[in-house]
Amino acid sequence: LQNRVLARRSSFTRFPKENRWQNTRLIPLHRDGAVWGVLGISRDITPFRDAATALRASERRFRNLFERNVAGVFRCDLSGTVRVANEALNALAALPPGESLVGRNLFSLVRDPTEAERLMNALKLRGVLTGEEVATLRVDGTPAWKLVNAQLIDDETCGGLCIEGTIIDITERK
Length: 174
Hints:
- The protein is α+β, with helices and mostly antiparallel strands.
- Helix content is 25%, strand content 42%.
- It has helices spanning 46-68, 87-92, 113-126; strands at residues 9-15, 20-31, 34-44, 72-77, 82-85, 128-137, 143-155, 160-169.
- The strands form 2 sheets. A 5-stranded antiparallel beta sheet has the order 5-4-8-7-6. A 3-stranded antiparallel beta sheet has the order 1-2-3, covered by helices on one side.
- A hairpin with a 4-residue loop joins strand 4 and strand 5 (82-85).
- It is elongated.
- The model has no long low-confidence stretch (mean pLDDT 89).
């Protein structure tokens, strides 16, 4: 039992006037079965808490940008399998509410398969597509025109290279 730690206490204290946070650990020191002292360690954790708060705020802003965007936003692997899609993209594809393009092939919505192949070759060559007007089909079979912007990115979502982009419906313009 000698010098054995029987209890530990850790606490977080906020000092409102200074807007600082401190983490304190108290460890009782035992000798002959009795506490003869306390080892205390304190450190200012304000920078860590501030960074965590800033990260949460940033994640919330970007999540809102993705979820509330009127453009369809997607990420798919090089074979066209959608990994990430916002609600606007699902609506552009005329999916019923609650359904998603995730797991489906985005290229299959291009009316002409040779056009999908041309776009993919151009993307691989240049790394980016800007303002491409593409004849598509909605999942219900109705034709539509889309304005596509995409780029190749390296991301763990796809296990390496994948395609990230935005799609806007321009059917009424055509």
